[in-house]
């Protein structure tokens, strides 16, 4: 597989401050990832990424809170980086965002200051 990567960014405060169960946080990542893949299923990089299922490369990063996640989403929109900001219902709370698969060099600069989720 080429150097195509998918970044997922989830709020770390969901567990650390708001005490969400780990499974609920993982579900947010799954929702955002499934949604962005569905929205961009016909995209060339997404198709290339999906052709080699056993070698997909995902990186899960953390945003410290809702404000940081929304700010990242806005920055991605400004730069036409395709992504899905997952907003959990019925709470109407942004929890996670998934960027569609891209060649790493095209998107790494937008997430390079984020830490791996712990």
Automatic annotation (TrEMBL):
Transmembrane segments: none annotated. Its EC number is 3.1.1.29. GO terms for molecular function: peptidyl-tRNA hydrolase activity. SUPFAM superfamilies: Peptidyl-tRNA hydrolase II. InterPro entries: Pep_tRNA_hydro_II_dom_sf, PTH2, PTRHD1. It catalyses: an N-acyl-L-alpha-aminoacyl-tRNA + H2O = an N-acyl-L-amino acid + a tRNA + H(+). It is an enzyme of class 3 (hydrolase). The keyword Repressor does not apply. Gene3D superfamilies: Bit1 (3.40.1490.10). CDD domains: PTH2_like. The keyword Hydrolase applies. Keywords: Hydrolase. It holds the Pfam family PTH2. This is peptidyl-tRNA hydrolase. The lineage of its organism: Eukaryota, Metazoa, Ecdysozoa, Arthropoda, Hexapoda. The gene is LOC117570371.
